[in-house]
Amino acid sequence: MTSDPLDALRLPIVPVDPRPQFAAALLRRIQQHEGSVAPSGATIRYFVTDLDAAVQFYRQNLDFEEELRPSPAFAMLYRGDLRLLLSVPGGPSGGGAAMPDGTLPQPGGWNRFAIQVPDLAATVAALRQCGAHFRNDIVTGIGVKQILLEDPAGNPIELFEPLAAYHQRVIQVDQ
Question: Is the pTM above the cut of 0.90?
Answer without folding.
Answer: no
